[in-house]
């Protein structure tokens, strides 16, 4: 009888686990008030150590500070192994101290990168069990380590970065491969409360109906600090054909909107860049057009507040459902009447009670990428990255639909 009950319990446990796996993974997204950057929480290893990891949309893999990390279930990925090939490991990593995560010999070489310090370190690839509150357990999850001295720029509570790039060891790819799920994930960054990072099945049908679609394109030249010649970029690019301010297109050269043979130009989406950065030759006419349109709405200009160039008197701006009532900004995309509208809550940044600024920054006269869509412009927008069909589905501001990321 006891044996039968054990078998029955085991059967239901397997059934629940399989159901959870097929439902994919959903983990919370929170916003750090000091840095305005977004992070999520996972657990790693036999001790289920809690790790707050900054979300890096274009990052190749998970890395975190392993200095104080202890786990009895971690394993180094050997040099020259199949798993090392999958991770695109470079060379071998060794360490003369007692073995632990972040210190082992004959280990597949990794190059974790902190973009805020512009710091690339030599490390190894490891694997261990990843746990979430979902509750989905991911065995043999590949990751790398970083020394705790190289965490500058991350939120104070964060000790790592979670990569969602186009690699075989990004979070979504590992989960899709292990649980036979479609390789797709969605992000919803909250302006307040808790948002969601979901891997696997898409958004609810009600929200899906309102999403627009545009192709994801590949930059043929890697944008990572270290790469092999011929490697494409792991980051996510879309084709912006033009920009409209208050319904009127900017007079900007088409060449800025395309990616040349050297991988320069085009538009990418970044969760590392706080505010959308525009090539200087795009930013100047954009700021002028916005300021003129704002003036037509009786919005008064005031002194600029760095890093912004166009600022306005808060008392002259009305508020509506989608935030400050200001001229709309549209990123015009391929297709018939397809555009990504950036409304007031995403286009403006409230400095204080007196000053509100246009939340776009000058990206300089020689940037690698002409337009980098930043995290502020992504807040309260639902984004689904479908790597199966190579498409981005996006909502624009959920506030217009009287909902938000924290209520999905």
Protein architecture, described:
There is one protein chain. This protein has 408 residues and is α+β, with helices and mostly antiparallel strands. The protein folds into two domains: 24-181, Cathepsin D, subunit A, domain 1 (Beta Barrel), CATH 2.40.70; 205-407, Cathepsin D, subunit A, domain 1 (Beta Barrel), CATH 2.40.70.10. The protein has helices at 2-22, 82-87, 171-179, 205-208, 280-296, 344-347, 375-378, and strands at 25-31, 38-44, 49-56, 63-65, 75-76, 92-93, 107-110, 113-114, 119-120, 123-131, 137-146, 160-163, 184-188, 195-199, 212-217, 236-238, 242-245, 248-249, 267-269, 276-278, 301-302, 311-313, 319-320, 323-324, 329-332, 339-342, 348-350, 355-358, 360-362, 371-373, 381-386, 391-397. A six-stranded mixed β-barrel has the order 2-3-12-4-11-10. The protein has a four-stranded antiparallel sheet with strand order 18-17-25-26. It has a four-stranded antiparallel sheet with strand order 21-22-28-27. Strand 31 (381-386) and strand 32 form a beta hairpin. The radius of gyration is 23 Å and the shape is globular. It starts with a helix and ends in an 11-residue tail after the last strand. Residues 1-19 have low confidence and may be disordered.
């Amino acid at each position: 009888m006891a044996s039968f009950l054990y078998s029955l319990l085991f059967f239901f446990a397997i059934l629940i686990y399989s159901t959870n796996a097929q439902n994919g993974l959903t983990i919370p997204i929170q916003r750090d008030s000091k840095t305005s950057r977004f992070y999520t929480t996972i657990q790693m290893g036999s001790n289920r150590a809690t790790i707050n990891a900054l979300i890096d949309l274009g990052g190749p893999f998970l890395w975190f500070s392993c200095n104080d990390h202890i786990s009895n279930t971690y394993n180094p990925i050997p040099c020259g192994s199949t798993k090392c090939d999958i991770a695109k490991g470079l060379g071998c990593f060794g360490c003369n101290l007692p073995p632990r995560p972040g210190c082992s010999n004959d280990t597949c070489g990794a190059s974790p990168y902190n973009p805020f310090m512009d710091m690339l370190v030599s490390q190894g690839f490891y694997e261990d069990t990843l746990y979430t509150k979902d509750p989905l357990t991911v065995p043999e999850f590949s990751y790398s380590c970083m020394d705790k001295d190289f965490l500058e720029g991350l939120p104070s509570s964060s000790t790592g970065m979670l990569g969602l790039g186009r690699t075989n060891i990004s979070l979504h790819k590992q989960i899709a491969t292990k649980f036979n799920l479609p390789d797709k994930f969605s992000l919803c960054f909250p302006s307040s409360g808790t948002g969601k990072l979901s891997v696997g099945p898409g958004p609810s049908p009600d929200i899906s109906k309102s999403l627009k679609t545009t192709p994801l394109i590949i930059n043929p030249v890697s944008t990572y600090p270290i790469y092999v010649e011929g490697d494409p970029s792991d980051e996510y690019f879309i084709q912006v054909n033009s920009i409209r301010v208050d319904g009127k297109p900017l007079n900007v050269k088409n060449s800025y909107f395309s990616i040349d043979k050297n991988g320069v130009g085009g538009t990418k989406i970044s969760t590392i860049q706080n505010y959308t950065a525009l090539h200087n030759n795009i930013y100047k006419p954009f700021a002028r057009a916005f300021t003129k349109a704002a003036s037509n709405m009786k919005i008064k200009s005031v002194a600029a507040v760095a890093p912004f160039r166009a600022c306005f008197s808060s008392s002259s701006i009305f508020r509506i459902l989608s935030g400050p009532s200001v001229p709309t900004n549209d990123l015009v995309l391929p297709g018939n009447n397809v555009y990504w509208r950036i409304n007031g809550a995403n286009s403006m940044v409230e400095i204080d009670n007196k000053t509100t600024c246009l939340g776009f920054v000058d990206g300089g006269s020689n940037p690698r990428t002409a337009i980098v869509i930043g995290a502020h412009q992504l807040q309260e927008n639902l984004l689904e990255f479908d790597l199966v069909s190579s498409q981005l589905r996006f909502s624009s501001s959920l506030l217009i639909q009287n909902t938000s990321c924290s209520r999905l």
